[in-house]
Amino acid sequence: MKKILFLLGIFLLTLNCAPQQTGPKDGKTVALKPEKNDDGEWDLEVLDPQWNYFLNAVAKPMGMYTESYLKTKNNFLVSEWNSYYYARKFPNIIENPIDYDSQENYGLKFEYKLYQVFAFVQWRYGLKMNNLSMGEVR
User: Fold this and answer.
1) Which side of the chain, N or C, has fewer Cβ within a 10 Å radius?
2) What pLDDT sits at residue 20?
3) Count of domains observed in the chain
4) Tens of pLDDT, residues 65-75
């Protein structure tokens, strides 16, 4: 009887120590997809306690960029982000791919926020992206 309980205990211990499956159970990835807010404008929310501080105190002001510049940079940065995601590089930082359509007119505000997400990740987590220079933050 003691041997059965011992074996049952070992079995339960190994079962609990097995790696947990993360992500959707059907094997599909959940992409970060831009969505319109209630006003019909494209919007982006970042759920990090230091995001607002970064945006207001560290990031360069929106007036320093043109929409075409940000769109071009975002296209490269999203591509780099997604390549890191699919290569499983930096899995603790890059948890989802980004579904970004370069043909869509998102507007200056959205393009600015998306660009600043990449600058924020570099500033906060030290992830250096090839298409983003250190001079992008104050």
Assistant:
1) N
2) 42
3) 1
4) 999 999 999 99
